[in-house]
Amino acid sequence: MKIQEIREMIKLVDQSSIEEFTYENEGTKVKMKKKGGQVQPAAAPAEAAAPAEKPAAPAEKPAAAPAQPAPAPAVEKPAEKPAPSADSSLHEITSPMVGTFYQAPSPEEAAFVQVGDKVSKESVVCIVEAMKLFNEIEAETEGEIAEILVKDGQLVEYGQPLFLVKTT
Amino acid sequence: MNITITDQLARRLIEAGGEAVSGQQFADEFGISRTAVWKHIRELQSRGYDIHSVKKKGYILSGVPDSLKPEVIQPGLDTRYIGRRIDYHETVVSTQIIAHQLAQEGAPGGTAVLAESQSAGRGRLARPWDSAFGKGIWMSVILRPDVPPQKAPQFTLVTAVAVVRAIEETTGLRPEIKWPNDILLNGRKCTGILTELQADMDRIHALIIGIGLNVNQERGDFAEEVQGIASSLRIGKGEAVSRQDLIRSIFRHLERYTELYISQGFTPLKSLWEGYSVTLGKRIRASSPREVLEGLAMGITPDGVLELKTDDGKIHQIYSADIELASD
């Protein structure tokens, strides 16, 4: 299950009048409980021996709720120990201008990054070109490339998401 | 021997504009002995400066070496910031690489990196650019315009206009621009411009404008495979061209048109660019890794994007492609 799907779910639950919500699919179980008008999302692999329920930090600004979810009484462990995937949030790398997206410095060379590659803030992830102006886009965050959202040679718009980075 | 004093002395002689400067005057200005002055003069003569001494008057400069050193370029340069700082090298891998480093270290806008030759000059998509020793202008200029990154691509067209005007002013030749910014003489390329951007979403940190200009090559200086498509100002004019005059003129025009673009937007530059265009109104082929489009080059948008009309009547906006005339 993808993080953005969980994020989407949180949004929907948040906007609804549902108090409690459980979703189970292919060995993954997501449980959310609202407390005092706030969403308390928790995601855990169903097969995990110990229940690893803990609040996942919302990846983006939630609609109205404050950014820090107070630990719900239902949560058994405090959030210090991070669960490998559920605790990460996704960062979007967007294009600062209209232009052509290139995954590699030249057609003969390997791509700057691939899904699963670790990146640091200064890592160059792609080039956007317009009228022979080349803009090397940096990750601007630390983490792992989760998804490449555009194709090599594609025209991208200003502000269009290019990559999703799972931040660590 | 102190190189810096030698350079300063050269600069002082150039600024004297052919008037004599006495050994005593130099000695006083630089706080050294007249014998030391004479040693510096000898050093300059060995570097190609044409200096002779006139009894009871002093040293007179009647010729400077064909070099791009700052002490030769900067006297007579009337810009406010472009070329005020020059980072000169005999041979580099690529001036772009050095300019990138300097920009990251905080070099001021207007800093220019100049080299007599590049071992790996490069063009679009890492294509090699031949940069023969002392024959051309191989340089990178750092600009730090206070405009959002979306306004950055137009600087490549602005630069083309500046370089064309400088070539006109210095040589009297009438070059043309192929979209977006190749400069042609009689249909053959004499200048390539490649610009790189350091920016985040909201702000340009630095624009690194790379300019490769063939000045004094003769036909035989070009590799065989590019002889049919490459040219130089010397080939166009039939005689050698001063790289020093040309660089000063490029700096001056680049500063003027950069300021014009920042203060009034792209519209006035668009008209200038159109006046030099060899692309518009022609049948062209635009090749990119994804597709090849053939049709009529209708014009450029208010942002400088090329509009191409294919035979089915559809208008395509071209942001990046290799352009050739369809008859080629």
Biggest beta-sheet profile of chain B: 7 strands, mixed
Side-by-side strand order of the widest sheet of chain A? 4-11-9-6
**Percentage beta strand of chain A:** 35-45%
Per CATH, the class of the largest domain in chain A reads: Mainly Beta
**Which fold name fills CATH's third level, the topology of the largest domain in chain A?**
OB fold (Dihydrolipoamide Acetyltransferase, E2P)
Strand content of chain B: 25-35%
Cα-based radius of gyration of chain A, to the nearest Å: 19 Å
Supply the number of structural domains of chain B: 3
Classified by CATH, the class of the largest domain in chain B is Alpha Beta
CATH superfamily of the largest domain in chain B: Bira Bifunctional Protein, Domain 2
Summarize the helices and strands and which ones pair or pack.
The complex is a heterodimer of chains A (168) and B (328).
Chain A: H1 3-15, E1 20-25, E2 28-35, E3 38-45, E4 90-94, E5 99-102, E6 118-119, E7 124-130, E8 133-138, E9 143-148, E10 155-156, E11 161-167
Antiparallel strand pairs in A: 1-2, 2-3, 4-11, 5-7, 5-10, 6-9, 7-8, 9-11
Chain B: H1 3-15, H2 23-30, H3 34-46, E1 50-54, E2 58-63, H4 70-73, E3 86-92, H5 95-104, E4 112-118, E5 121-122, E6 128-129, E7 136-143, H6 154-171, E8 176-178, E9 182-185, E10 188-199, E11 204-214, H7 233-237, H8 243-264, H9 267-276, E12 283-287, E13 292-300, E14 306-310, E15 315-318, E16 322-325
Parallel strand pairs in B: 3-4
Antiparallel strand pairs in B: 1-2, 4-7, 5-6, 7-11, 8-9, 9-10, 10-11, 12-13, 12-16, 13-14, 14-15
Structural description of this entry:
- The complex is a heterodimer of chains A (168) and B (328).
- In chain A, 8% of the residues lie in helices and 36% in strands.
- The longest helix of chain A has 13 residues, at 3-15.
- In chain A, the strands form 3 sheets. Chain A has a 4-stranded antiparallel beta sheet with strand order 4-11-9-6, with no helix packed on it.
- The two termini of chain A are 18 Å apart.
- Chain A has 168 residues and is mainly β.
- Chain B starts with a helix and ends with a strand.
- In chain B, strand 5 (121-122) and strand 6 (128-129) form a beta hairpin.
- Chain B folds into 3 domains: 5-63, Orthogonal Bundle (Arc Repressor Mutant, subunit A), CATH 1.10.10.10; 70-276, Bira Bifunctional Protein, Domain 2 (BirA Bifunctional Protein, domain 2, 2-Layer Sandwich); 283-325, SH3 type barrels, CATH 2.30.30.
- The mean pLDDT of chain B is 92.
- With 328 residues, chain B is an alpha+beta fold.
- A 7-stranded mixed beta sheet of chain B has the order 3-4-7-11-10-9-8, sandwiched between helices.
- The A-B interface holds A 94, 96-100, 102, 105-109, 129-136, 140, 152-155, 158-159 and B 124-127, 149-150, 152-157, 180-181, 193-201, 207, 288-290, 304-305, 319-320.
- Strand 8 (133-138) of chain A pairs parallel with strand 10 of chain B.
